[in-house]
Amino acid sequence: MNSPDAAPSRLASHAVADGLVLAFIGAWWFTARSLPSYVLPSPLATLRALVLLFVDPAFLGDTLTSLARILLAVVLAIVIGGALAALGSYVPSSAYAVHRRVMPVLNSFPSIGWALLAAFWFQPGTLSVLFVEILILVPFCAIALAQGLADMDRELLEMGASFSRSRWRIAIKIVLPLLLPYLMSSVRIAYGVGWKIALVAELFGADSGLGYLMLRAEVMSDTAMVFATCFAIVIIFVAGEKLIIDPLARRFAPH
């Protein structure tokens, strides 16, 4: 049961947070008045550009393209990362190669390096962007899922094996439910990191998407559009987290 002071405390916290946002916008507006628009656009000019990204079909296509790439990259990274985690956990002869050879390379290889290699190896487009995003996201997913496999209740697995000899049945009925919280953690991490690298991947290797719009805006000195693409990513990220990831995480949270 909530305490009587909980509601006023929440209102105060929201008031402080909203006040900081309004103060930031006010300082931004005041500073932009004395600077050229190509240096610092006004909040209103940025808002107009932001609205275009979600309303104008010419820009909405690029916004949806970036979103589709992120979602596909997250799914593929989880599949590949899960395969690596399972290989390292259930195939003893592969454990050393996975944990001491493959994972250190994926963990430490610089993001800009993957982006440049993709630009050399592929034509600008979705394949180039997915290549960069997946290779950067895979280690995050593999580490989270490997931890989930390591923390799994061995006694529960042995009990399941005593009732069924089917590995697929055990995997679906026991392993997957136990792994779901770690899977949701992987989704949350990959979705967040994916948006951080999306613009870099699209700047170097795409002819569509928000990164491409940002590159075009930089060439045209359209700073308002540069700001707008960044804010669009923030909006999409927060919406995806609040409307999809958080409800699923609560649904599959361990009780």
Structural account:
This protein is mainly α and 255 residues long. The chain has one domain: Orthogonal Bundle (MetI-like fold), CATH 1.10.3720. 84% of the residues lie in helices and 0% in strands. The protein is built from ten helices and no strands. Helix 2 packs across helix 3, helix 2 packs across helix 10 and helix 6 packs antiparallel against helix 8. The mean pLDDT is 85.
Mind telling me the CATH superfamily name?
MetI-like
> Can you write the helix and strand succession as a string?
HHHHHHHHHH
Look at the structure and give the mean pLDDT. 85
Name the structural class: mainly alpha
List keywords for this structure.
about 260 residues, MetI-like fold, mainly alpha
Describe how the helices and strands are arranged.
Layout: H1 6-32, H2 43-55, H3 57-90, H4 92-108, H5 111-121, H6 126-150, H7 154-163, H8 167-205, H9 210-219, H10 223-251
Helix pairs in contact: 2-3, 2-10, 3-4, 3-6, 3-8, 3-9, 5-6, 5-8, 6-8, 7-8, 8-9, 8-10, 9-10
Overview in brief:
The chain is 84% helix and 0% strand.
